[in-house]
């Protein structure tokens, strides 16, 4: 693919000829006279010129996108960790990347933070092509990986100072930012203790503080709140909101719907390396629907009978959840379905051991969205 | 909003030699801090060589003939080189530790010099080796190690030993970046180092070995280095061994620096 469409002799000739004001008919005549077969000309137009024109349009990042990903693929052996992912992140927004274990979240973050070369596709971060100029990209980004990357033998303060030094900041800037970050992440008291003595939550906070030392334009957070207690989690959420207010773009991955809901302007759900849904939290919720009625019979032998009986009550057919062994009914209007289900079972003389109405779990959301994706493909 | 063009210029300037050195220094310091915080690490790393020293000096020493030198005087330079090699093995272990803790990922995502992580580690381990060598010399003195060559020769011997450890650090770094786990790095280090250490002139004169082993032991990088150190501290002809030692070090560095750096760039 070295020969770009501009290089091709035909393209050059056509450009030159049209500059000289030759008509289409004249151009074609000259070309055929020179021995170009019509097939060659068609080949150039269709195979080279046309697809590239189309692709160029596709690749062009959305106007205000600070991160632009196009057709990224990355495989580990047979596992496609990223399978043709494309996405845009508008400047100053928060993108929540939601997905179950092994979805490819970390892999995508690693590609965008220059740690991993994709097999194919392009990624533009802050206007810079990541594959072509990784070292420039590093000046614009901050990364807090999935596992806290801190030096346990250094104190909290020294950890931040080291990162500042490696960002090549002026000494007085390092001192000021370190102090500020220690305060923002409630680490002042522990600042002079080695990080070895830190709790899991403190490590996580120190790691996040380290990712902010360079005051990055774009912040990548890979599961930033996994392992944090509810208080630390909401503190962290506040910090992130503050950063966004100051204009930082944030790409965060999470397994919690709730977190993406709270923080993200846009949510992209991925599974098996593919985008399976995207939109605002509200849009996605509308797709997901109301919830699930889950019930449990006293007499396990009559499960099939009950499942058939309940086929029509919910928004979608009732089925037996393989893991829990419960009968599960996806619903739109939960309370109504619940009453209806109880009535039907009662009339049929099927005794209930337990019944509840709950929000769909992430697993169910994914199940539903992947099913939808699969049926759309057909 | 930052203008990309000016931002790039500024950052290219930051890749100058000054910043590379600054990054290497920051990383060296970071790696040394743990030894300053935990001086027992230094002490412990000499226990094993001291045990070797005492074992060979008092158990096997009587049976080993070392023409021209007392066995203690013969043994100490060898043990010191061995200590430096074992110290170099820590380079790989430390890097594997950084890798498994995600620190390498953090460093690779920073706009720092690419070479600084590896250079900082190998340099820090060399500095640590200086202390260990001095400590071992002290222990040697206590059990009767005496030298009569001028101080300049002793310093040359020290420099050679440290440089030798530095080159082995790069082999170790390559292994550490390949295996990625601390335990494996530890095992992988000793698997090849142990035979190398014993098939050399560290403990016994090469002439006492079977012929097939002598062929290797005579040209082994460890033998030529130990022989140079011995000649420097105890007196004797230095030159052929010293050149061989330098050639080995150059070869090791030429092969393993690029290998390690390449692994660092690609580490996933
Ligand atoms: N270095 C690697 N070697 C082999 N396979 C890998 C490697 N890294 C990731 N994978 C595979 O790629 C897929 C995506 O992994 P990735 O770590 O990106 O998932 P994730 O969404 O971050 O999951 P989690 O929520 O568990 O962190 C998984 O199937 C994983 O096993
Ligand atoms: Mg992950």
Task: Write a brief caption for the model.
The complex is a heterodimer of chains A (378) and B (268). With 378 residues, chain A is an alpha/beta fold. Helix content of chain A is 43%, strand content 22%.
The share of residues in extended strands of chain B comes to under 5%
* Mean pLDDT figure of chain B: 86
Number of helices of chain A: 14
* Number of distinct helices of chain B: 11
DSSP helix fraction of chain B: over 70%
Write the layout of secondary structure elements.
The complex is a heterodimer of chains A (378) and B (268).
Chain A: H1 9-19, H2 24-33, H3 38-59, E1 65-76, E2 79-90, E3 94-98, H4 105-112, E4 120-125, E5 128-129, H5 134-137, E6 141-144, H6 156-166, H7 171-184, H8 200-212, E7 218-222, H9 230-245, E8 249-254, H10 257-263, E9 266-271, E10 274-279, H11 281-288, E11 291-297, H12 303-309, E12 319-320, E13 327-331, H13 334-347, E14 352-358, H14 362-377
Parallel strand pairs in A: 3-8, 3-9, 6-7, 7-8
Antiparallel strand pairs in A: 1-2, 1-4, 4-5, 9-10, 11-13, 11-14, 12-13
Helix pairs in contact in A: 6-7, 6-8
Chain B: H1 4-13, H2 17-37, H3 39-60, H4 71-100, H5 103-108, H6 116-142, H7 151-179, H8 182-198, H9 211-219, H10 221-234, H11 239-266
